[in-house]
Structures are given as C-alpha cells and as structure tokens.
Amino acid sequence: MPRFARSCLFGLIAITGGLIVSVVLLLLGSLWPGDLGYDIRIVQSGSMEPTISTGAIVLTRPEVEYQVGDIVTYQRRTDQSATTHRLIAETEVDKQAFVTQGDANNVADEQPVLSEEIAGKVWFDVPYLGYVLSFLRSPWGFLLLVLIPAVLIMWEQMSRILRATNGQKSEDQ
Fold first, then answer.
1. By C-alpha distance, which of 62, 167, 75, 81 is closest to 122?
2. Which candidate, 108, 79, 172, 106, places its Cα nearest to that of 97?
3. Which of 16, 60, 69, 172 has a Cα at 20 to 30 A from 129?
4. Residues 144 and 109 placed together within one structural domain of the fold
5. Is residue 88 part of a domain?
C-alpha cells in the first residue's frame, strides 16, 4: 500500500477512534449520572425552544446556589422524569423554592420546585446529539458502536496478514 494511502487510512482510523471514544464517554456520563460531578440528559420536549432544542443533550452540574434566570434540570420526588426549565421567581413554601417555566410555554409551572429537587444548572447544550445517544443506547446502536471498530480492526489485521503472506510467496519463488 502506498505511503499516502497508509497515512490517509491511519488518519481515518484515528478520527473514527476519537469520535467513538467521545461518544462512549458521553454515553457513560449519561448512564451513570452524577458519578463524574456532572449529569448528561437528553431533552425530550420543545418546552425550552428556541434556547434548547428537542433532541439536544444538556450538561448539568450541581451548584451551591441558584439564581432567578438560571436554566436548571430538576426531578420531583414523585416523578420519574427530569425537566429542564428556567427559574423565573424565588418563593418560600416551607423551604427555599423556585417557580419554573419553559421558554416556549405561556404560563409558569403550577408547582414550585424545591432547591433539593434541582439536579443542577445547565452549563451548555449540544443540539441533536441526544438523538445519537438515544440511538446508541438501543440494541442496534450498541451493536453498531461495537461492530464498526471491530470490522476496522479485523480489516487492518487481515490486510497485514495478506501482505506478509504475499511477501513470503515472492521470496520463495
């Protein structure tokens, strides 16, 4: 194989490997929330559009204090799903609580969110990457994540074996 082609192949494998490692780290971060000091969530609805689009991932991190205007992810004790909304007012129920509202919603959420129900403040979001992570969490996605690198490694090893075999045949003749 010519030197240029080998360099291109090596570059392609390196870029693919880097992308796979990045996606795996994001996937691990979303599977084990909080263990790494941050949490990755996939936005399932359009309640925060246009600020955060449906299918985006949000990276959240717990803060000591939250301010009105912060975008936070919270999970009520009575609910399995998390919600990402903006804090629009502070209120006192029995403890410190906040009134929340999605940017696309016309009215505030009915029930205030207690400070201890807030999982963290949104640091940043990446549009549409949530669709990729959702797919990778599926059986087909996981198979693809494992299968592509395995095929690339096998192809590279087979080409090395064939080159070595062809080199030995030409020496024998």
1. 62
2. 108
3. 69
4. no
5. yes
pTM of the model: 0.67
Distance CA 81, CA 38 (A): 17
| Three state DSSP letters for the chain | CCHHHHHHHHHHHHHHHHHHHHHHHHHHHHHCCCCCCCEEEECCCCCCCCCCCCCCEEEEECCCCCCCCCEEEECCCCCCCCEEEEEEEEEECCCEEEEEECCCCCCCCCCCEEHHHEEEEEEEEECCHHHHHHHHHCHHHHHHHHHHHHHHHHHHHHHHHHHHHHHHHHHHC
**Which range, of 99-103, 122-126, 169-173, averages the lowest pLDDT?**
169-173
User: What residue numbers bound the domain in which 4 lies?
Assistant: 1-31+129-159
For residue 113, tell me if it sits in a domain.
yes
Centre a 10 Å sphere on the Cβ of residue 122 and count the other Cβ atoms it contains. Answer: 24
- Same domain? For 61 and 77 the reply is yes
Which candidate, 156, 63, 80, places its Cα nearest to that of 118? 63
Answer yes or no: do 12 and 48 share one domain. Answer: no
